[in-house]
Amino acid sequence: MKPPTKTNHDKVDYYFSKNPSFYWMVRSRKSPLLRFVTILLICYGVVALACWRQDALFLPKPSIGFFQDPYFVAVIITMIIVLIMIRRLLLRVEDLIEKFPQMLKPDQIDELSEKGALSASSDRVRDIIALRDPSARKWHRLYMCFWLLIVVILHVAMPFLDQMGHSSWGVSPRQYPLSYSFAVTSSFLLWLVVAGNLTWYVFATGFAVFPLIKQYASREKLWIVPNAPDGQGGLSAIGDVAFGMSTALGSGMIMLVVWIFLVGAEKAPTILAGGLYSLVLSATFFGPLRSVHGAMMRAKNGELDRISSLFRREYEKLPPSNSEDNSTKATNPALDSELSDRLALMAKLDAVYTTVNAMPVWPFDLGTIRKFLLLISIPVVSALLQKFWPSAVGTVVAEIVKGFRP
Length: 406
What we know:
mainly alpha, elongated
């Protein structure tokens, strides 16, 4: 009797089930995303109720009421999108683990010991990401402490130390103590429980998956096929994981866009935040793929050299053009057939050389790089809209972001 086939939910649930600080938010076999969204909406409603009790839903300018703060809504939307992206990332990890043996040279993986080592390495990758490895649980606790420190500094310490010239529902403990208390509580939920745990899966994927790939790439065990159907040397699953990591982290662009329309594109913190964010996403995408890039470069150059050598060998066997017995050879059927076969082989070698020369040296295609460039260009496009196109689209987006005053 065959074991039941694992569904996508089972595959993702494996990674979440040993993370009690987050698993309670998605613990639903029928619709984990619906449960997650429901909890976030309840959080939004409870905070809104607290603000209503203190008449902090709408405040006169320059103060900001709860319903006048699009950033809180942007945070919730971002968390939902990040969860979707993380689920896709984990499915890509599973896809890579399943396909990885086929990406290794057959003579390298046929040995029984090598198969056992690869199986053990794959299990360890899963266990690190899923917090089933003791050292992973230790690093996860330290990582969550880091997020706890960030939340305390931004949402607890700074509102007391830095009193702004205007009040706001979420950062004014003296004017709106009840609203502020619920804002801090929701911040712990959104930033510590949700953002902290979800970003863990991005970084854990990077630190678990790509050292394994680097190990095989550095030992020249990756099987790179120049004319593979995926157009990426047969390694597209590796690029998919790296792109999944960058898109998961890139979901925070929503909050950055809202921030740009709130405070303006020309402010130094906005420019710095946008630039650093794009650099982080670029490092997340390209950094883990450097070893694969090196392996693909070496494979491509080696194959080009080999084809060139074969072509040169056949070329040297061609009869010289000024040979005295050319007329004799031209009328000799055997020699004529040999010459035709040699020319046909050279034509095939030339075609193969062209194919190999066109092979990319990164495990992603043009469509993927276009999506990535679109992602990291969002801050620039938003800044241009906010600064140079105040009418039409710019005004509409700005009004949506600013909210409506009574």
